[in-house]
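My current task is to audit a protein record that another person submitted. Please read both lines and tell me whether the C-alpha cells look consistent with the sequence. Do not assume that whoever made the record got everything right. I have pasted the whole thing underneath without changing anything:

===
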Amino acid sequence: MEHFIWNVNPNILELGSIQLRWYGLLFVGSFFLGLMILQWIYKRENRDPAVLDNLLIYIMLGAVVGARLMHCFAYEPEFYLSHPLEILKVWKGGLASHGGLLGVLAALYVFSKKYNESYMWLLSRVTMPGALTAAFVRFGNLFNSEILGLPTDKPWAIIFERVDMIPRHPVQLYEAFAYLLLLLILVTVYKKVKPVFATKILPGIFLTYMFIVRFLLEYTKTRQADYQWDLPFTTGQMLSVPFIIIGLIWIVWAFKSREKTT
C-alpha cells in the first residue's frame, strides 16, 4: 500500500543563521486571527475593543512561558535541570499545551486586574481563539515533522521522510481538526445561549472537550516524555485528567446555577 510522503522543509526562509519557520508563522498568525475573533465578540457585546492589543501581548507571553516551562519540567526534567539555560532557547522547540493553558489563565488574571475586566467573562470568550491557536500549533507540529503518531497500516497514514520511512498516524492532523471542530462548537454555543450562560458554560466545554481529545489521541502517539510512569498512562494523559475533571465539574455547575436563576 502506498502512503502519502511528507517531506516539507520546516523553514519558510533561511538567511544565514536567521530562520523563518512555518511553526512560528502559524503560532503567531493564530493569535492575530484570534484577535479578530475577540474584536467581533467585543463589538457584538458593545464593549470597547481598544484594550485588545494589550490583551494579545499578555496572552502570547503567558502561553509561551507556561508552555515552555511545562515541557521542560514535565517532559524532559533531567535534561533541563542539568542544562537550565536551554530553557530559554524556545526556538529549539518544546512547548506543552497543558502549560500553555495555565500560562494563559495566569496572564488573563493579571490583565483582568489591571484593566478592570471581568475575569470569568474574559476567560470564557478567550476559549474561542484558544481553540484556534491549539489547532494551528498542531499544524505547526506537522510542518516540523514532530509529535509523531505510532506506526499504522491505515490508508491515511503518513510517512514523515525527514524522520523515517514508517507509515504513521497523522496525529497532528487528528488534533488540529478536532480543535477546529471545538472552535465551531464554542462559537455555535456562544451565539445560541444568553451571554450570562455563555460566561459560565464555555470554559467547561473547552476543558472537557480539549483534554478528552488529548487523552484519547495519546494512544496514537509515540512517547514524548524522557521517563516512564509506573502507570499504564502517558505523561500527556496524566496531565489531562485534572483538566477533564475540572471541565466536567464546571459544566455541571453551569447548568445547576442556570436552573437556580430560571
Remarks:
- The helical segments are 22-44, 52-75, 77-82, 97-114, 119-143, 171-192, 195-217, 235-260.
